[in-house]
Design goal:
The protein is built from five helices and five strands, in the order H-H-H-H-E-E-E-E-H-E. The protein is an alpha+beta fold. The chain has one domain: Arc Repressor Mutant, subunit A. The strands form two sheets. It has a three-stranded mixed beta sheet, with no helix packed on it. It has a two-stranded antiparallel ribbon with strand order 1-2. Helix 1 runs antiparallel to helix 2 and helix 2 packs across helix 4. The longest helix has 19 residues. The two termini are 28 Å apart. 27% of the residues are buried. Bound molecules: zinc ion (ZN) (3 copies). The site of one zinc ion has 8 residues, from loops. One zinc ion (ZN) binds next to helix 1.
């Protein structure tokens, strides 16, 4: 799926809907279960353009599942991350829905220090440039996630 830049006003509800449908298709194809709870956690993560922390997810989840506890959320987040449906933004210790779910890619994230919105770009040229630079340094790159902080178009 493609996603408009987060600073461009759009019907994000439609993005969430599409992401959930896509996640279902991916899980079906892999023979893994997107349980209702996992689906709800994915929906919560996707709902905002701001990466969601585990406790934010828990707060939201408890509105529908009073009995939800941190391990419930952690297990669901772990599953979603392992299936590549969400990404963990290390610098924020929070999660963001993946816009390229189901396709192998490495990600770069543009993270706004004004409003907190984060945007995934999966730029293949940038990824290749990192691979070349690493090779030149005789370094075997394994994880090539890049987190870039700055200001989004709405915050500048
Ligand atoms: Zn959107
Ligand atoms: Zn992604
Ligand atoms: Zn911003």
């Amino acid at each position: 799926m493609s996603h408009p830049p987060v600073s461009v006003p759009h019907d994000h509800g439609a993005c969430v809907h599409e992401a959930l449908a896509r996640a279902q298709t991916i899980c079906d194809a892999r023979g893994v279960k997107l349980t209702p709870l996992r689906g709800q956690v994915l929906e919560i993560v996707w709902r905002s353009h701001k990466p969601a922390g585990a406790y934010e997810v828990l707060d939201e989840l408890q509105k529908v599942h009073k009995a939800a506890r941190p391990p419930t959320v952690y297990r669901a987040l772990e599953f979603l991350e392992a299936e590549g449906l969400i990404h963990r933004i290390e610098s924020q210790n929070a999660y963001l829905g993946c816009i390229e779910a189901g396709a192998p890619h490495s990600s770069q994230f543009l993270i706004c220090r004004g409003c907190g919105a984060a945007e995934e770009i999966a730029d293949r040229e940038l990824d290749a440039a990192i691979a070349v630079a690493a090779k030149r340094a005789r370094f075997k790159a394994e994880r090539k996630t890049v987190e870039i902080s700055g200001l989004c178009a709405r915050c500048t």
